[in-house]
Design a protein that fits this description.
By secondary structure, this protein is α/β, with parallel strands linked by helices. It is 43% helix and 13% strand. The chain contains nine helices and seven strands. A hairpin with a 4-residue loop joins strand 4 and strand 5.
């Protein structure tokens, strides 16, 4: 399996593209769809999500909004005759894809190269290893989000997320991607969820936060 075939769903979902996966095996199809959605954790896909498209709903493949859809290969001849526009199509049976995007070139090369190194490790192929590799790759991209959470000027007891500060606190190579990410529904949901907890006086604890702490510890920084 090529790195591009593994990386493309992750990158395209981060960009909120339309992603269609096909296979002749329903078990493989559903596994790929659910697996692709997990690759953007700690973000959560907020758009159309159909693991196996029923034949009578094939018109959804022409929807103009972002989607993650699974289509049995027996229906692909019909789908290919539809007016699809800018859809990433991945064939899970032959590990091949058709993409109108160049999303692989839009993330900083050091992040992509580190992800490829992680994926080379055979241990990442076991259990949730691949998903964890993608999660770790998101730490240098969005893991500094707390640096952009500040007290509101009008209410020092309430916190807000400052978009401009979030972008500026990252390396310049990240800026174009972060500018895009700020407007995505999954990132807005991610920030909103954490702000709600912090404003309620609660901490936020999950495996992504654990990974942030591990990375900061290695760099000699401590994050509460």
């Amino acid at each position: 399996m090529s790195y591009s075939f593994i990386l493309l769903p992750n990158h395209s979902l981060l960009y909120e593209r339309r992603v269609l996966i096909t296979s002749k095996r329903l078990s493989l199809l559903t596994a790929c769809i659910h697996g692709a959605a997990q690759l953007i954790y700690p973000l959560h896909w907020q758009h159309i999500f159909i693991p196996v498209m029923p034949p009578h709903l094939l018109d959804y493949c022409c929807a103009p909004m972002p989607y993650l859809i699974g289509v049995h290969s027996s229906l692909m001849q019909k789908v290919k005759k539809m007016p699809l526009d800018e859809v990433l199509v991945l064939d899970a049976d032959i590990n091949d894809f058709e993409s109108p995007y160049n999303d692989l070139d839009k993330l900083p090369s050091d992040v992509v190269n580190q992800l490829k190194r992680n994926l080379k490790n055979n241990a990442t192929q076991l259990g949730d290893g691949i998903a964890r590799s993608f999660m770790k790759a998101l730490v240098p991209i969005i893991g500094n989000y707390r640096a952009a959470i500040k007290p509101k000027e009008t209410d020092c007891n309430s916190l807000e997320f400052q978009n401009e500060l979030f972008v500026k606190s990252s390396s310049s190579s990240m800026h174009p991607f972060l500018e895009m990410l700020l407007h995505s529904q999954h990132f807005q949901e991610f920030i909103g969820d954490r702000l709600s907890n912090l404003n309620a006086g609660k901490g936020y604890q999950d495996i992504f936060e654990d990974e942030i702490r591990a990375v900061n510890s290695e760099k000699g920084r401590f994050v509460v």
